[in-house]
Amino acid sequence: MKTWPSIGRLRWGWFLTGAVTLLVLPVFTDTHTPTVLLIWALFALSLGLMWGYAGLLSFGHSAYFGLGAYTYAVAVINIGESTGPLLLAILIPAAVAAVIGAMMFYGRISDVYMGVITLVVTLILFKFMNATAGDQYAIGDARLGGFNGMPGFHVLNVPGLPEASLFGTPMYYVAAAVLLGCYLLSRWILARSFGRVLVGIRENEARCELLGYSVPAYKTAIFTISAAMAGLAGCLFANWAEIVTPGVFALKSAAEVIIWVIVGGLGTLIGPVLGAMALGMVKLLLGEQTVIDNSLILGAILVVVVLAIPRGVVPAVQGWWRGRARVRAQRKVHARPRRRLQSAQAERV
Amino acid sequence: MSEAVVETIELTKRFGGVTAVDRVNFALQERELRCLIGPNGAGKSTFFKCLTGQYRLDSGNGRVLIRGGDVIGLRPHEIVRMGVGIKTQVPSVMNGLTVMENLWLAARRAHGWTRSGAEVQRVIEEVGLGELARRTVGELAHGQRQMVEIGIVLAQEPWLVLLDEPAAGITGAEVERLVGLIRQINQNATVIVVDHDMEFVRMLGARITVFHQGAVLTEGPPEKVLSDARVREVYIGNRAR
Q1: Closest CB from B77, B96, B101 relative to A3
Q2: Hey, is the C-beta of B215 within 8 angstroms of any chain A C-beta?
Q3: pTM, 2 dp
Q4: Do B210 and B221 touch, CB atoms closer than 8 A?
Q5: B6-240: CATH homologous superfamily?
Q6: Is A204–B93 a contact, with Cβ atoms under 8 angstroms apart?
Q7: Total tally of structural domains belonging to chain A
Q8: Which residues of B touch A199 (CB under 8 A)?
Q9: Which of these, A157, A321, B132, B155, has the minimum number of CB atoms within 10 Å of its CB?
Q10: Are A167 and A180 in contact (CB under 8 A)?
C-alpha cells in the first residue's frame, strides 16, 4: 500500500504536452511576450512552492527577484561573460534569504510577522535603489543608476562564448527550459521526504516539532530554495528587459506575484504558473490602453476569484474533474445490477 | 533501586505572579508506568510541557534530567530525538493529511525512508486504524484523532512515552482498548500518563503522582493514593465516597 500517494506526483502526459507546446510556439508567434510570461511564471512558481506547500507567505518575494536582476547586471558589467553572473544571480538572493530566513524562523517569527518583515525588506531595497543615482553608487564598473536603473549590460551568452548572445527566440527557449527544469525540480523536492515534511509543517508545525523535525531548518531551507528560483527569474527578466530598475522591488511587483499565485491556485505547482501567464497577459494587454489603470482590473479579478473560487482556478477545476469522475464511477456501479435485471427480464420474456 | 530515567529536581515554572509548578522533585524508573493526576489547574500539564521542552526553561527553573542528561533549554525536537514520544492534551495531528501520511511522517524521522512504510503498516494494525488509513484526519471524530496521535507516537518507537490526557473524548470499549494499548506500550517503554479521568487511571492500575497547586501532594500505588484523605479532599471530593 502506498503511504503517500498524491504529493509530488508528476503527470508526464500533461508535462510533455506543455513542453511540446512551448517548443513549437515560436513557429506561430513572436517570442518577446511569451518569454516574459515564462519568466513571470517562474517567479510565481518560486512563491507557489514555498507558500502552497510549506505555508510560508512572503509578502516581499520581489526582493529576491530584484536581487537576482541587479546581481546579474552588476556582475556582468564587471565580468563580461554571463555564466558567472548567472550563477551569482541565483546564489546572492539565496544567501540573503538564508540569512533573513534563519533570523526569522529560528527567532520563531511566522505568519503575519513574517509577511511584514519580508515586505519591509523589499521596500527598503526599493527605497535604497531609488537613491543610488550618484557616481558614488557603483560596484566596480557598474553604476547602480538610481531610479533610472541600469541599462546596456551584456545579455546572456552561450557559456564560454561571450560573443554568442542569446536574445529573441534563443532567449525564449532558455526561459522555457529553465521553467520546465524548475518545475521538475519542485516536483522532485515535493516527492522527497523533505517536501513531505514541508507539507507536514504547513499542516501542523507544533506536531512536526514533536516528531523530531527541526522546523526552523526546514523553513529556512525552502525559503532559500524559493529565493534562488526567484533570483533566477529576476536574472532572466533583466536579460529580457535589457534594463534593471528599482521597480523590480516595488510594492506593485510584490503584490502582483501574490495575486498570480492566489488566482492560479495555492497548493499546486501548475496553478501559479498558469495564473502568472494568464494574468501577465491580461496586464500586458491592459497596458496598451489608457482608459483604466490596469492595477484596478487585476485587483478586481483577485476579488472576484477569491469570492467565487477561494482555492484558485486550478484546484477548483481539479475538484470539479474529480467530482465528475466519482459520479461517473458511482453511475457505473449502480448501472451494473440494473443492466443485469434488464437482461434477466428480457430472457424471461 | 535502579537509576531514574526521568528526573526533575526542584522544577519550577512561573507565569508572572502565578507559580504553576512549584519545586517539583520527581523520578521515574525504566519501564515504569506512572499516572499524573490532579484537579484542573494543579500544574500537571505545565509539568508535562516542561518535561517535553514546550515551555522554554533555564537554570533558574530547576533541572530536568532524561537518562542523566540535563534537557533544560533544549527545544522539543531535540528532546524527541532522544527517543521520547509525546502526545499532547489537544490532539495535535496534521488535519489536511491522511492517517497514513501522518504516521509516515512520524516513522520517517525515527526509522528512515526505507523502513517507514513497513512501520506505518505495523502501527495501523497495532492501533486498529486499518479502516481509517486513507481518510483525511480532519474528517475523523475526536476519539479517532486521539488514536491517530497515539499511533503517531508509536510509529516513532520511543523508549519514553508521554501521554497528556489520552482518554479525553474516548468512551466505553475504546477506553478499554486504550488501556490495553498503553500496557502494551509499557512492555517496551517507560510511560507517563497525565489524566484526570479517575476511572481510566484506576483501570491502568499504575503508580500515581498527585499534583495540587503546582506541587506533588502525594505519590504511591493506586489503592494507597485513592484512599488518602488529602487526595479526596483536594481532588476527588464527595464523588469518590
Answers
A1: B101
A2: no
A3: 0.89
A4: no
A5: P-loop containing nucleotide triphosphate hydrolases (3.40.50.300)
A6: yes
A7: 2
A8: 97
A9: A321
A10: no
